[in-house]
Structure formats: C-alpha cells, structure tokens
Amino acid sequence: MRTSISCIVVPDAYIKLFRTIRMRQISIVSSPSELIFAKKYSFFLSFQTSLLGSICNIYLLLKFSARDGRPNGFQKICLVKTVPNIIVCLSFLFWVVPLTAFSYSYNEVNYWLNSLVGGVAGTWAYLLTPILQVSMSCNRFYVLYFPFGIKLVKKVPMTNVIITIASLSVSIVAATTLPKGCGYVYDPEFLQWIPEEGKCAETVSSGINYAIIIFTISSNSFNIATASRLLMRKIVGLTKQDSSKRRKRWMIMFLQSVMQDCLHLVDSINATYLWKLSEELWFQCIFLTLSFITIYTLDGFVMLVFNQDIQPKWCRSGSKGERTSAMMVTSKISVTTMT
C-alpha cells in the first residue's frame, strides 16, 4: 500500500470534514482551469501508460509461458513477475481511467469495489513484485557462490516453494485491507490512490512501505555480492574472448536487476515524501498516480529489453550468437531453478 494521505480519526463525520478541508486546499492552490488541466493530463498519461504496460506485460506472460523446454527457476520468477504487473496496469486501464474520464466524485464510486481493486492492485501486486525481485537476485547469487548446489536443499523445488509462500503471504496482508477503514482506494477527485483515513490503514501502509525498502536493500545486497564475485573470480575453461563475453552478459544481468530493484524504491520515495513538496494537484498526480503505473510499465519493458530471445523479430538487434539475455546465463544447478 502506498502512503499519501493519512489521518488518525475514524468516524465518518471526521472523514468528510477532512475531505472538505483537503478539497479547499486544492481549490486555493489550483484554479478551476488548472484542475481541469490536471484531470485531462492524468487521464491521457494514465491511459497511454497503462495501455502500453498491459500490452507489454501480457506479451511477456505469453512468451515466457510458450518457451520451449522445462523452465528453470529464473524463468519461472520472470513469468510470475508479469502477473502483478498486469494486474496494476489493467486496474488503471479499466478502473482509474474510466473514473477519471467520467469525472466521478469519491462518494459516487462503489466503496467495496474500489477497496477490492485497491487491495489487489495497491497491496497484493505492489508487495509481491519486490519479493519476487529478491528471489531473482538470490537465484543469481546462489548460482555464482554455490555452483554445485547445497546438498540439503538440492532436491527441493525452491522456486515453487518461494513463489507459493510469497503469494500466500501477500494474500494475507491484502486481506487485512478489506475491512472498512483499512482499505486502499482510488479517489477520482484527488486523482490519487490513497489509504483510507484511519489508524488501521495508516499502520498497514507504513508497514508495507518499510517492507519495500527492506526488500530493495536485500536484493541489491545480493546484486553487489554477485558483481564482486564476477569481478574477482576468473572464469576458467574458456578463451579470453569467450570469458570476456560471458562476464559482460553477467554484468548486463546485474544492471537489469539493479534497475528493477530501484524502480520500486523510487516509487516508494515518490509516494511517501516527494508528493508533499507541492499542493498543486498536477504535481501530486505525477508523484503518486503516474509514478505508480509508470513503475510497473517500465518493469515490464526492462524484462523485455534484457531478454532478447523473446523480443519481436522486428526489434531484435545483434547476432544470434551474442544474446545478452539474462536467461542464457542462469544455471540449472541453482537451488531456485529446481522444479
């Protein structure tokens, strides 16, 4: 759950008072023409970004699913990672965009449906993605530091176990947002996804944001350890040229991982701190709503760019023997590649 507006009081009267004060603040800072511009701006960019993100991530899901042979752990995680990306993009395309286009007020939106969409997209998907990213970084760390595996877990389908545990865990967290006062909803008047005004929502939101930061730090720690190993370890059994090419592919994979990790940290910073720098509605829309959808769209495009074997033929570059895809450097020995 992303943090933007929080309040400790719960009664409906106080919530209505809070919303009235908030709308007056926006009205004072932004003129009617600026409010109209902000809504058109939000609608156009949300529609464009969510459409591109939906197409990209659905394409990735189909391509990852149709890969020949038995998928390894890295491929499984990439496949599952497209699911939360698709959920977020579709929630914008079929929920946020229509509500914004038809200028619904918050009170006109069905509360339970709004809360359900927010729980699935803003909590379940938002929390699952960085957990999967940690799993991807751990996968590559394990391949490099334990090339022959660890005997105790060598025969355990760790990828399936991790994905199952992660999915169940985030489902439990998402379920806690369903009671009234704990939810995460889209407010078409503010053009923002916001936690409800209650102590429950505030607590859950803060906990999730801290978790995102912890997951990002953990994942990048694995990435740094992996990069250090690559720089110091000499690859034997290969010519100097082949060794250089393999090391280059691993470094490209490292950059991919860092980029994906930092995307969610940037979004968390935007939704927690940067949006507060201005009361302008268009400014807050950029660092809250548009940041949210842009991160999940970019996450899909990052996977597409670094997996050349699944790219459309018209956008592939380079010779077939020089693929920079991360998939080509994952080891079947890895504990997280066992099925």
From TrEMBL:
It comes from the Eukaryota. The chain crosses the membrane at residues 41-62, 83-104, 124-146, 158-178, 208-231, 252-275, 281-306. Signal peptide: none annotated. Residues 47-307 form the 7TM GPCR serpentine receptor class x (Srx) domain. The keyword Transmembrane applies. Keywords: Membrane, Receptor, Transmembrane, Transmembrane helix. The keyword Cell inner membrane does not apply. PANTHER family: 7TM GPCR SERPENTINE RECEPTOR CLASS X (SRX) DOMAIN-CONTAINING PROTEIN (PTHR46611:SF5), SERPENTINE RECEPTOR, CLASS X-RELATED (PTHR46611). This is 7TM GPCR serpentine receptor class x (Srx) domain-containing protein. The gene is srx-128.
